[in-house]
Amino acid sequence: MLNKTIAIIGAGNMGSSLIRGILNAKLTSANKIYASGTRIEKLETLKKEFGVNITVDNKEAAKHADIVILCVKAYVIRKVLEEMHEVLHKDQFIISIAAGVTTDSMEKIVGKNIPVVRSMPNIASTVGLGATAIAFGKHVHEQQHDIAVKIFEAVGEVVVVGEQHLDAVTGLSGSGPAYIYMVIEAMIDGGVKMGLPRDISTKLAIQTVLGSATLVKVSNVHPAILRDQVTTPGGTTINAIHELESHGLRSMLIDAVATATIRSRELSELINK
Predict the structure, then answer these.
(1) Confidence label for 64 from pLDDT (cuts 50, 70 and 90)
(2) pLDDT tens per residue across span 168-210
(3) C-alpha closest to that of 102 among 16, 150, 167, 38
(4) Which of 18, 195, 239, 272 is least surrounded, with the fewest CB atoms within 10 Å of its CB?
(5) Distances 170 to 92, 121, 140, 217, 232 between C-alpha atoms, Å
(6) Which residue ranges form the domains of the chain, and what is each CATH number?
């Protein structure tokens, strides 16, 4: 148990997921969590479900906290940090999930040598199966490093990267769920085209993707080897793979990650100006 007081600034979907994960992992108690937001009805729901403290005043939430987690969009980061500025102090540390906002930018806004952690979680964190990359600003010490990792481990897998890699993380795991949703949707439609009822096709496609990803993870076997294990000479799978390769599936997915990474860099440059 961390036994730290945590402020969740912007208790929307991701903020709510972090609250759920933190409490499920018993990292701290509900009475040590302060959730802020603009929608009082959403906050009241959180209070009823989890028993956390709620407020519509970000500064009020932050002044109680050992850890301030910013679950807000990039375009409001400056406004939020400036309104909390007078209550922030060097014994706290800040974790941000805002895409593209660098630790250097946040450190300059906050001042006071307050440690800043930057993270890139994805939407699967809302069901405890997220993929999160985190990077650390220059004032973060070892204990804060470990705390940040524990918080995001409560909602999925965590990797630590240099901040220069976070745009590539955005292109891969940040945007990646959208690619997989398209794959699932296409598989469902393929089944329907070949005569399966849509509900059955949907169930099979979802379980196939889930099971395949789980097998890669638990077996620790390279995906290419697992693919070969289900590819019989002259069979259905090799013919389907040939069709996918002829249409450039592999290249398209690589290009999708690269394109999203480049756009993330462009947006980051704009944001940090």
Answers:
(1) confident
(2) 999 999 999 999 999 999 999 999 999 999 999 999 999 999 9
(3) 167
(4) 195
(5) 27, 9, 22, 21, 36
(6) 6-166 (3.40.50.720), 174-267 (1.10.3730.10)
